[in-house]
Amino acid sequence: MSHTLKYSYTLLAPIYDAIVDSPTRATRHQSLTQLNDVTAQTILLCGVGSGLDFPHLPLGANYVGIDLTPAMLKRAHQRLTPRLSTKLHQGDVMQLPYPNACYDQIIMHLILSVVPEPQRALNEAMRVVKAGGKIIILDKFLRAGQHAPIRRLINPLISKIATRTDVVFESLQRPVEVTLLSDKPALLNGWFRYIVLEKTVVHNDISTNE
Ligand SMILES: C[S@@+](CC[C@H](N)C(=O)[O-])C[C@H]1O[C@@H](n2cnc3c(N)ncnc32)[C@H](O)[C@@H]1O
């Protein structure tokens, strides 16, 4: 299904900013204020799209944006500025081409509810983030048990074109070292949420009694 999304985002690329930029600008700015101090950090943007986050990113870090769709990456490339150190890669967020624990923080704006297997995308983010690093999520999720009949009804079609509307964040598994730091409503009565996860250091409590 990723290939279907690649086709649809190729078609959406020329109009994506006109549809998405203005309604999400303040919200994505607010989301990015939740980053830790970014000085000298390396930060990954999963599903970077056309780079609508770029104007809101704090300076001082090295950013890497990955996306499946070359047409979206081309738009992101046009949005690059010299003040922001940014590299762009084509790739799949469900199979990130990076080693374990190599990013200080991860940004996942409007991607977990887009990919066909959000659990795989989250697993990959949790794998590549370093201990102490945050995963900043801005996305639309249903609550566990929420009926939302229209969103569930349209999901089979719209999930193939642009985005899923049936992802329940609470159904995604996290290992013990990943803590939910915050979960707040963002847009549309809390359909869109600001969620922050943190990968903590797990200390093996080895006490020796001599
Ligand atoms: C709704 S847009 C979000 C873009 C951007 N993060 C934003 O906030 O505007 C979803 C993006 O995910 C990309 N995408 C879809 N499936 C992907 C995958 N499996 N791996 C990487 N990117 C993917 C699409 O090409 C598109 O650019």
What binds here, in terms of ligands, is:
S-adenosylmethionine
- Helix/strand-derived category reads alpha/beta
* CATH third-tier fold name: Rossmann fold
Terminal-residue CA separation: 59 Å
Helix % is 25-40%
Summarize the structure.
This protein is of the alpha/beta class and 210 residues long. The protein has helices at residues 2-32, 70-79, 118-128, 149-161, and strands at residues 42-46, 62-67, 85-90, 105-109, 134-140, 178-187, 192-199.
Protein architecture, described:
With 210 residues, the protein is of the alpha/beta class. It has one domain: Rossmann fold, CATH 3.40.50. Helix content is 31%, strand content 22%. It has helices at residues 2-32, 70-79, 118-128, 149-161; strands at residues 42-46, 62-67, 85-90, 105-109, 134-140, 178-187, 192-199. The chain has a seven-stranded mixed β-sheet. Bound molecules: S-adenosylmethionine. The site of S-adenosylmethionine (SAM) has 21 residues, from helix 1.
